[in-house]
Specification:
alpha/beta; D-Maltodextrin-Binding Protein, domain 2; 2 domains; 5-stranded mixed beta sheet; 3-stranded antiparallel beta sheet; 10 strands
Length: 335
């Protein structure tokens, strides 16, 4: 038995001594995404095995990468904090929330912004021209009530329309639905849902129906372009797996560059992997729509953080967008 232990120890020593081989970091990671074009980089990463490529470039052993799709960011929290999920993605406001809640323990931070995209509130009710026109009978579908990017954007719009005290006036009208389910409910005309605050491509698909019109644009609410989705993890994972972390960021950066280099090819990728009821030309038109930008640079972080802190949605406020994101992207011109 003693000889067996010595032999096994020798094997691990020899493996660790081999150039370019590391046994110290995780051999399997799980990444969560949601629905829509906001997660286009992930499709490129999956198709081309970019994480696996950059893991090898970091001198690590092969890693198994598993991808999961969630309906909303709030369901990812426990999975990330428990270690069942290593990388999460979703709206900027859920990141700000988890950052504020975990500053003294897990230290969740953003790895990078994923994009900036306008979020549209569409309705099939011809009487609703502004958010002031919603009634008690209205129902607004969005990914997660009170916490999703769409929910906070609606609260910001309500504060502008009804005064700060009325920031949550429309909350009772909201219902949690995934983007695809919300679109189906709105367009069917048979559901209680009369409006949908969503993202590309769903908002543009809805507007193809002449009975549906836009009530609100998130860029108008925030006063300009803002980050929609972000990639994030915990400080604990980053500290314990620095090379894996670096590989994921490098893979994400490469995927973003691929999308920006050839938007038509990116549209083809989306159609091939997601099988939407859309043509490549339709997706290309959405990818090149005004305000749609695939970028690692966070924008509008403090606009949302200031609002959330002022209205008691977070207990601590970042002094800068850099507080919310890990330092690897601090050289970018964020806001």
């Amino acid at each position: 038995m003693k000889r067996l232990v010595i032999s096994l120890s020798a094997v691990f020593v020899l493996l660790a001594a081999r150039p370019g081989v590391s046994l110290a970091e995780v051999g399997e990671i799980t990444i969560a995404q949601q629905y829509g074009m906001a997660y286009l980089q992930f499709l490129a990463m999956q198709r081309d095995h970019l994480i696996e490529k950059h893991v090898k470039a970091e001198g690590l052993r092969d890693v198994k990468v598993t991808w999961h799709t969630f309906a909303a960011s709030n369901t990812m929290y426990d999975a990330v904090l428990s270690g069942d999920l290593q990388f999460a993605s979703g709206g900027l406001t859920p990141l700000i929330t988890i950052w504020a809640r975990t500053r003294d323990n897990y230290k969740a931070h953003g790895i990078s912004a994923m994009n900036s995209m306008p979020l549209l509130l569409n309705t099939r009710d011809p009487k609703v021209k502004t958010i002031r026109d919603f009634t008690d009978k209205s129902r607004i579908a969005l990914p997660a009530v009170k916490i999703s990017q769409q929910a906070i954007t609606l609260q910001m719009a309500a504060a502008q329309a009804f005064g700060d005290a009325g920031f949550n006036r429309l909350d009772p009208l909201t219902v949690s639905m995934s983007h695809p389910d919300g679109m189906q409910a709105l367009m069917s005309g048979a559901s209680e849902v009369t409006a949908h605050l969503t993202s590309p491509p769903y908002q543009y698909q809805e507007l193809a129906d002449p009975k549906i019109h836009t009530v609100l644009n998130s860029y108008d609410v925030a006063g300009g372009p803002t980050t929609f989705t972000v990639l994030w993890t915990t400080g604990k994972f980053r500290d314990e797996n620095p090379k894996t972390y670096a590989a994921v960021l490098a893979a994400f950066r490469e995927a973003t560059d691929m999308i920006n280099k050839d938007k038509h090819a990116a549209a083809e990728l989306y159609v091939q992997m997601e099988h939407p009821k859309l043509t490549v030309d339709q997706v290309y038109a959405m990818l090149t729509s005004p305000g749609v930008d695939y970028t690692l640079t966070p924008s509008g972080v403090m606009k949302y953080a200031d609002f959330m802190y002022a209205h008691g949605l977070i207990k601590v406020k970042p002094t800068s967008w850099k507080d919310v994101f890990f330092p690897e992207i601090h050289d970018l011109p964020g806001s």
